[in-house]
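input
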Amino acid sequence: MAARKKTGKAESTARRTRARAAKGPAQLIENVQQIWLAGMGAIARAQKEGPAAFQEAVADGFKLLNRSRSTAEQVIRDAFEAAQGTVESRLGSAREQANETWDNLETLFQSRVHKALQQLGVPSGDEIRLLTKRVAELNDNVKALAASQARARGGRSRKAKAPRARAKRKARAA
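output
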């Protein structure tokens, strides 16, 4: 059946072609004249409606231009905002890395200075605080000891001073 359909179509196309050929050159000339007249009518219409059609085309072009500009501006704004966000995030991570690196460098420097001071025998801040506290305690003990010795001498020295004072008075009186 499929072969018959193809044959049927081919036969109908062939019949149409023969029918056109049978009509002959008169039909062909008539078709050409109609095409020619349609072209002339299109030219006449374009001449009549030309300025108005031109103005409409300009207005449509202007609208299209404005839409494309606004769309382009929006695309540029979006791209700029995305780039700005990316730059800010990368800048933030770079700052964090720089701060972390700086902190590590500072810790390393402090550690090496501490080791060098230990090798030289320089006491640390804690050791100096302990020594200062110990010196203050020793000063308090020395003052207390001096005060107790002064009290002990004070009792003897008055007794020793009394005979000397009598001797001086006698010497003056004489």
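quick obs: Residues 56 and 63 are 11 Å apart (CA to CA).
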